[in-house]
Specification:
Layout: E1 2-5, E2 8-11, E3 14-17, E4 21-25, E5 29-36, E6 52-57, H1 59-69, E7 73-81, H2 84-95, E8 99-106, E9 112-119, E10 124-129, H3 138-144, E11 151-154, H4 160-172, E12 177-180, E13 196-200, H5 203-210, H6 217-228, E14 233-239, E15 245-248, E16 253-256, H7 269-284, H8 287-301, H9 314-323
Helix pairs in contact: 1-7, 3-4, 7-8, 8-9
């Protein structure tokens, strides 16, 4: 039997959330999106006509927007520059449904910038300049915890010391932590993070942390076991791009296939995936269902260009399920 009270639902002893409040701690960037038919060779100059533009980005901001569009209450903690790009981002966040009261400006650094090179086949290469993101401190995360979140979503595009402190604040408050484990570095001491709810790296990050290429079911399982020796998580969710998702709970594993879509640009797909995973996991308490939901969110993201401009809504996912007759029970 279901019992409704305020935002919470009790079902079989579990407390689920109709509108989970997710605190995202991460990067706020302006992206220079450059489209090209091919990446130039060393010393080569290529004249391109595909176009370029400045658009909002950053793993943190992408995830914060996705949380809102998936039906969660989105709180964002980040650092921006006190410059034109930073002011533009503040206006965009305000108009996009993100609660950005913990996004502060600093005169010490310019707003973070990412150069996103998108090839004709949809693959991308990204060079990120942290700028103000490098100044996000533990005290910023501690202040953001006063929003009393239901879950914390965090990535590694901010100082690692800040990540460690943020995870500790959440754990002390009994708030589950979901880690989008990128960008990866061999220098990161994952053990210092302590126990988390979900740890989710992509293929490149898996290899960086474990030295294992997640090219088969056996290798995915080996990678999860290797990760479990570095960081204790309730669930390990491996993002495998067009191949789908590998889920491991410490005992059992499950492979969830991807959806066949026409990929235009993979920018932000991983960020959207983890945000969707977080929202649906907090709504349903079902990690497999959350992975399936996130899989669809990620698939829809690659069908559009850009970061902010490609993030789907919960309604988009519902239409995707109905139009493709996917065996998924909609809420």
């Amino acid at each position: 039997m279901w019992y409704n009270f305020l935002n919470k639902i009790e079902y079989k002893g579990m407390i689920l959330l109709k509108t989970p409040r997710i605190l995202t701690i991460g990067s706020a960037n302006i992206d220079l999106m450059a489209r090209m038919s091919k990446i130039p060779s060393v010393g080569q100059t290529v004249i391109e006509h595909a176009g370029y533009e400045y658009i909002p980005g950053g793993k943190g901001a992408n995830a914060a927007l996705a949380v809102h569009r998936m039906g969660g209450e989105s709180i964002f903690c980040a650092k921006r520059g006190n410059d034109t790009h930073g002011s533009r981002l503040a206006d965009i966040y305000a108009s996009s449904g993100i609660n950005a009261r913990f996004v502060s400006a600093t005169p010490k650094e310019r707003t973070g910038l990412a150069l996103v090179m998108v090839e004709a086949n949809g693959n991308n290469r990204i060079v990120a300049y942290p700028g103000a993101n490098a100044l996000l401190r533990a005290e910023d995360a501690e202040e953001a915890m006063t929003c009393y979140p239901d879950a914390m979503l965090i990535q590694f595009e901010v100082p690692y010391d800040t990540v460690i402190a943020s995870v500790r604040y959440a754990r002390d408050a009994g708030v589950p932590v979901i880690i989008d484990a990128g960008p990866a570095s061999k220098e990161y001491d994952l053990e210092a993070l302590g126990e988390v709810e979900i740890f989710s790296p992509n293929e490149t990050e898996i290899y960086t942390y474990t030295g294992i290429k997640a090219t088969s079911t056996d290798n995915c399982l080996k990678a999860c076991l290797a990760l479990s020796n570095k960081i204790k998580a309730k669930y390990y969710v491996l993002k495998l791009g067009e191949r789908g998702v590998f889920l491991y709970d410490g005992t059992y594993f499950k492979f969830i296939a991807s959806h066949n879509v026409e990929a235009i640009d993979s920018t932000a797909a991983g960020d959207v995936f983890t945000a969707a995973l977080t929202v649906e996991y907090m709504r349903s308490g079902d990690i497999k269902r959350a992975c399936e939901y996130a899989n669809m969110a990620g698939a829809l993201t690659v069908t559009k260009e850009g970061a902010f401009t490609s993030v789907p809504t919960h309604e988009d996912i519902c239409k995707f399920v109905l139009n493709n007759e996917i065996n998924y029970q909609l809420n």
